[in-house]
Amino acid sequence: MATARVIPREELAQTIDFLYDGSTLTVSPQGVKIATGEQVNFSNSSSSTASISISFKANAPGQAMFGTTTSITVAPGATVSLTAANANCSVNYTVSVNGTNVGGPYSIQAGTGPIYVQVLYTAGQGDSSPDPVALPVAGTLEMVCLDPHAYNVGWNTQPFSTPLNLTAQTGNAAHTANVTAGTYTYTLTLKTTPLLGIGGGKVIIQA
Fold it and tell me: What is the mean pLDDT of the chain?
């Protein structure tokens, strides 16, 4: 009886390339979607003039993508690899050189995400955090409220296939970006009378 040939499983990996020329940072791709549990390789070009520091931002109330790792440093010509959690999650990150921010936020989504934006009404102002927020093309975003108010969400261009027009403490859902890469601005207005304009922010959709 013939024995079936066993083909080794090809491990999943996504590489993100960085090049810093002394003044400008190039990142490719800027927004990525990966499978849960997939490895991400952060590769700093040998042509870069300096080491880069990558800081991963919290995504409350979601799970941390890379566990307790909140930052890494990658020397020119080196690669640092991290493995995403075996769970749907998202992260934004920024890049700095010698303590100076040179780029970001950039985005990684594992599985269905989403990236979260928290809204809080304080001293007459509706604060959105993070602002700006980034997600990949066809990525997902969910707004959540940390206060008892409800807010109308208005857009310069609606970027989601199921429109995100309202956020409150309950009944929120993840929305999928169905547009091309770009920056989309929104305003927040209290749903109850008086309809006060109290803030807003930016959503950056990346490829």
Answer: 91
pTM: 0.91
Q: Is the pLDDT of residue 7 over 70?
A: no
What is the number of residues in the chain? Answer: 207
Taking alpha carbons only, the member of 30, 99, 36 closest to residue 66 is 36
For residue 110, pLDDT over 50 is answered with yes
Pairwise CA distance, residues 70 & 80, whole Å: 13
Rg (CA), the chain: 19
Place of tokens 């300096």: 50
| Structural domains of the chain in order of their starting residue, each with its CATH number | 13-110 (2.60.40.420), 115-206 (2.60.40.420)
List, in sequence order, every residue forming a beta bridge with 142; answer none if it has no partner. 116
From residue 58, give the alpha-carbon distance in Å to each of 63, 80, 85, 115: 9, 20, 14, 10
